[in-house]
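User: New here, any thoughts?
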Amino acid sequence: MSDSDNGLKQVIDLLKQPVSLDSSFDEKVMEQVESVPPPRAWARSLWTAANWMRRGRTLTVSPLQGLALAAGVVAALFVGRMWVKPDSAVSPGPTAAVAEAALVHFVIVAPGAGSVSLVGDFNDWAALETPMHRVEGNGVWSVSIPLTTGRYRYAFLVDGTTWLSDPSAPPALDDEFGRPGSVLTVGEL
C-alpha cells in the first residue's frame, strides 16, 4: 500500500470510532433553545411596531395637482406602450406590412415530389399556408412571399411528410422535434 492509501485508511478508521459527548451537552442545548422567544411574540411585536402603516390618512390634492398627476399617469402609459413590442399574434394592417416587407424567393429541387410547402416562423409552421409552385419540367419548386426585417427559421415540407432544409441557406440549430431547418435573415437587424 502507498502512503496515501495508509493515510486514507487511518482517516476512515478514525471516523468509525464512536464520539463521546459531555453529559451536560443536552442540557446546554435545551437552555439555548428555551432562550429564543416564541415566533408569535416576535411577529406580534413587529406588527405592533408597524402600526403606523395601518392608520388612515387624509390626502389633500388641489385641482392643479390632480391634473398634473393624471397627466403623469397618461404620459407613463404612453411611454410604456412605446417600449412594448407588439404581440406577434397581432399583425399590422396590410399597408404597413407591404410597406416594410421585402419580397423573398424560395426555391427547392424536389423532382419526385407531388407537393411542396414552405413552412416557418412567418406562417406558424402551417403546411397548407404557403404552397410552392412547380416550375415546368425540371422538378424545381418556388414561391415568393413578403417578409419584414427579421430572422426566420424555415423548412420545406415535401408531400406533407418529409422535411428538407434549404441547401442554399445556413442550417438552423436543431429544434426540439429533430427536424432539419434553415435560417434566413431579412434586412439588417
The first strand starts at residue 102 and ends at 109. The radius of gyration is 36 Å. The chain has five helices and seven strands. The CA atoms of residues 82 and 114 lie 47 Å apart.
